[in-house]
Amino acid sequence: MLASGDSNLRTTLRPYLGQIRDGVLASGGHLLSGTSLIALSVLIAFFLYRDGRTAVRRLHSIVGRIAGARARQSLDVAADTINGVVHGVLGTALVQAIAATVGYWIAGLPGALLLGFITFFLTLVPMGPALIWLPAAIWLASQGRTGMAIFLVAWVGLLVGSLENILRPILIGRSSDLPFIIIFLGIVGGLVAFGLIGIFLGPTLLAVAYGLIREWSGGNEPGDAVAE
What we know:
Layout: H1 9-13, H2 17-67, H3 69-107, H4 112-122, H5 130-142, H6 146-173, H7 180-194, H8 198-218
Helix pairs in contact: 2-3, 3-4, 3-6, 3-8, 5-6, 6-7, 7-8
């Protein structure tokens, strides 16, 4: 309509001005909220890195006085699991990004290294890499390179995407003696129940629960008869 001269810009956009205004305000609010959370996280992380060891010692002492040695052991299990989850998540993201970069390079996409770098961060979000490989596959198909578009979907969309469900539990399991199924269910259940933060919460909660159940079912309480 603008190209044909039948309407001017103001008249064309007038029905959508309210939606555009609301969208801009909502996006600005989300951006401000996210920026504030990042700033708060950096501030908290500074104090945790500076005084973290002292806080851990005091927390060990407090939980020990409240619930005894079992509470200290549960705290250690939670810490080991969180460390394992962090290393597993970042390690899986690195492997996926390298594999995706190889796929981008084979498909002949411009800026394959940059796309792989962006993919590293998008793998932390469920279905995040699709923001890269799906438009790239559509672009390849529009260029007449249908074979490379199919290859990109199969390589990045299916193969690289499946690495997350296989490699992440294995890497996390290397840091603890938890069964594979416990870690796998913790990751999947955590994502379903809590979203992205559930990647860390799910395995940690299941690890603590598994440790308590294993200790309580395999040991004797004070005063119990000991079998000879």
